[in-house]
């Protein structure tokens, strides 16, 4: 089987298992990031009283990858409305796309599809007209140079 498919299936499995454990009733959501050193990092959204200070579900795992100086290869966000609802895959918002772009345009992200089919695409496919196209690659390389 394709290594990427194995990684993607494993990420989804880990997200669903984590949500069931962390949020046994009600809403639940988790993000899983895979790194070039084959680590799976899981994060959740902070519960806050003031909506203006919320951060995306993926943010914690991205910060953890940076903490360990690891390159992100894949990102997945899964939610459910309550314990009786199906799991949904959420494409990364524009802010998270910008954050993930730090690790390069080849980071694979899970995207929302009809019937919640598990599908990953590279950021460059999701953002074919990204603003970085206005600059020579060599000017931007230091932003995505990671181990």
TrEMBL record:
Gene Ontology molecular function terms on file: catalytic activity
Gene3D superfamilies, sorted: Cytidine Deaminase, domain 2
InterPro entries: Cytidine_deaminase-like
Protein name per UniProt: Cytidine deaminase
Originating organism: Vallitalea longa
């Amino acid at each position: 089987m394709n290594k990427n498919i194995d990684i993607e299936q494993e990420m989804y499995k880990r997200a669903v298992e984590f949500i069931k454990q962390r949020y046994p009733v009600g809403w639940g959501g988790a993000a899983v990031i895979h790194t070039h050193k084959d680590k799976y990092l899981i994060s959740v959204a902070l519960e806050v009283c003031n909506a203006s200070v919320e951060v995306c579900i993926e943010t914690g795992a991205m910060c953890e990858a940076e903490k360990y100086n690891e390159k992100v290869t894949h990102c997945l966000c899964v939610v459910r409305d309550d314990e009786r609802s199906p799991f949904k895959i959420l494409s990364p918002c524009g802010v998270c796309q910008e954050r993930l772009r730090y690790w390069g345009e080849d980071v694979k992200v899970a995207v929302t599809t009809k019937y919640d089919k598990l599908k990953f695409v590279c950021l460059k496919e999701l953002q074919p007209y990204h603003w970085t196209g206005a600059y020579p690659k060599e000017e931007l390389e230091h932003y995505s140079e990671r181990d």
